[in-house]
Amino acid sequence: MGIQKKRMFCEEEVRMVLAERQTPNHILHLLLSVVTAGFWLPVWFLVALLGSGSYKCPSCGARVLGYVPKKYKQQMAKAPSS
Ligand SMILES: [Zn+2]
User: Fold this and answer.
1) How far apart are the CA of 52 and the centre of ligand 1, in A?
2) Total-model pTM
């Protein structure tokens, strides 16, 4: 399993975080497809389609947003940057 990182907004902590999500191990699936003479391909396809989990906050584990909701923008503008 690989890990993908992206800068996203954590609503729990009201701050930007480097969110992480698990990605499928394509090398492993390629090997399995070769070993099974292609029978594993549909599985690989489904995992690639559905296997990438959603981004999670690395510090509190909450789901994160790809944008900062307006109500937090003002709050973050006021809060002194740590
Ligand atoms: Zn968080």
Assistant:
1) 20
2) 0.64
How far, in Å, from the CA of 74 to the mean position of ligand 1?
19
Q: What is the mean pLDDT of residues 53-75?
A: 86
Centre of ligand 1 from the C-alpha of residue 26, in Å: 29
Q: Based on the structure, what is the number of domains in the chain? A: 1
Distance, in Å, from the CA atom of 63 to the CA atom of 58, rounded to the nearest integer, reads 10
- Give residue-wise pLDDT tens across range 25-54: 888 999 999 999 999 999 988 888 876 678
Q: Cα-Cα-Cα-Cα dihedral of 32, 35, 37, 43, to 10°?
A: -10
Domain extent, residue 27, equals 2-78
